[in-house]
Amino acid sequence: MTVMKVYHVVNPDHLQSILDNGIKRTSRGDKGDDQLIAQTDVFLDDRCPVALVRQGVSRSNNLYAYFSFEDKIVDITDGAVTSINEFISGTSQKIIELVVDPRRCYVSDLDTYDSLKRAIEGSSDSGKLDELAASYWRKLTPLESFSLGMIDRPEIMITYDIEPSSVRLVD
Fold first, then answer.
1. Three-class SS string for 123-165?
2. What is the span of the domain harbouring residue 92?
3. Number of structural domains, the chain?
């Protein structure tokens, strides 16, 4: 089986529990309390294609990670490519490395996600919202087929729980 390393940002208070127990998909993380994100996720999940649902894809119930290659990471905030060490030095959170099965992960387009989120916030008409949701799901790419540059701000969606043996603290 081919595996891949991706990176996940965690609250330092949760680090030991994650190292001991892994990460469960039901954990919404630090952004879980943001009502607009939760609303956007539910909207997308209600329109998720059946084939993706069968693969475990869910905005509300997947883990998220940063795409990486060599010793670089793609920042989800702006798509900038930076060294992992630079990324770590720029955050007060802890960074963990996850070893994942790329056949069970997808890459989403955060620019399309943010467009939908803004449209929901602005109460756009339902036709426009449905169009944006359909565009989001069409752009979803299996991680095993993804390469840098396909999506400007990629975000890895992990469709399964991560065991402690697949988690490592990055110092």
1. CCCHHHHHHHHHHHHHHCEEHHHCCCCCCCCEEEEECCCECHH
2. 4-169
3. 1
Q: What is the CB neighbour count within 10 angstroms for residue 120?
A: 18
Q: CA-CA distance, 35 to 30, in Å (whole number)?
A: 12
Asked whether 74 and 150 are in contact (CB, 8 A), the reply is no
Reported as a single tens digit per residue, the pLDDT across 4-54 is 999 999 999 999 999 999 999 875 555 556 899 999 999 999 999 999 999
Q: Which amino acid, residue 110?
A: L
H or E stretch covering 36: helix 35-46
- Strands 72-74, 81-83: pairing is antiparallel
pTM: 0.91
| CA pseudo-torsion sign 38, 101, 55, 106 | positive
Report the DSSP beta bridge partners of residue 73. 68, 82
